[in-house]
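Sequence and structure are kept together here, with a separate record for every protein. An example record follows, reproduced without changes.
>
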Amino acid sequence: MTIADIAGGPGVRPAERGPVSSLLLSTLDHGDPAVPVPTALLHATHVAVAAADDITADEDLQLSLFLLYACAYGSLAWIDPEWEWHPALLQMRTAIERSFEDALRRETPIPALPRADAADIAAALFALTAPTPGPSLGRYVAKHASLEQAREFVIQRSIYTLREADPHSWAIPRLTGRAKVALVEIQSDEYGAGRPERMHAEIFARTMRGVGLDSTYGAYLDLVPATVLASQNAMSMFGINRRLIGAIVGHLAASEMTSSLPNRMYADGFRRLGFGPDVTEYFDEHVEADAVHEQIAAHDLAGSLGEDRPDLVPDILFGAAACLAVDGRAADGIRFAFEAGRSSLRPGPDTGLLRMPPRKVASRRAVHG
């Protein structure tokens, strides 16, 4: 079996993970956006939402929410763009979003709120995102990850990173003044500062190809668990809903402020496995870029927004804390699987055969010297 046998692609729909995603996929595949959606879809959604004990880890609901956001992003080419504004799908999305948001607000510890002062808000964010000792996915990849585990890690990251910056860019038209300028400055770097080959998503695509993986967006969607989809869905939810502008700003701030150290470890891990700059460039780029971005995000973006809009300070801190909680849960799930000697991917077509093609193995050994 080859990578091509396992990978999907933009023209291949994922497999359903329960009754809601099954009905949704059938509707997107065969339904007509011009006619009413079957009532069974909305009914199944409400039943599943009411029954969900842990929506962040609910495979059926997180895949469904991911697909509903894909209608707006255009990230999966097989979804007809006419579905984006379909009233029934918006109702469905709202039902899942409300339950997901409620769970995040209920379960995420929020630190004491700072004054509506840029310096105080930045200080609170730096305290919240300060590095902690102990095991982490970054430390595991740096010191222990096997080749197969490193490639699984890249697959898990691909759900966000092949579309890097897009969820946060929803905030640009919702901001004004200092905060808007700061966000555009960060996003300009994310999108390559005018150079397509320097877009972070494109650099990550080169990383995927460098380890022998398919860099087509969604190629490994079936293998990615709900907790990883939830990480992507949380930032999409914060970004796409104007009422959550504070949360998406806090989310971006926390993301930038916790990026440099893990990416240094990831780069070290791939170098330990013998890979060269074609694979490590993405991680190395973020060590330097995010050390600058964290200052802009904390002071000029989140700090100035909270100073100009004191009513948004609670959501800025909520978005930052939710970012740490959801991303941390996804990362811990991957690390726990690795430490237990099992795959971090969902059961699929013999994921143990995600091996480097011979050409790539030779290239890797040559780099290792």
Remarks:
- The chain has a mean pLDDT of 91.
- DSSP finds 17 helices and no strands in the chain.
- The radius of gyration is 20 Å.
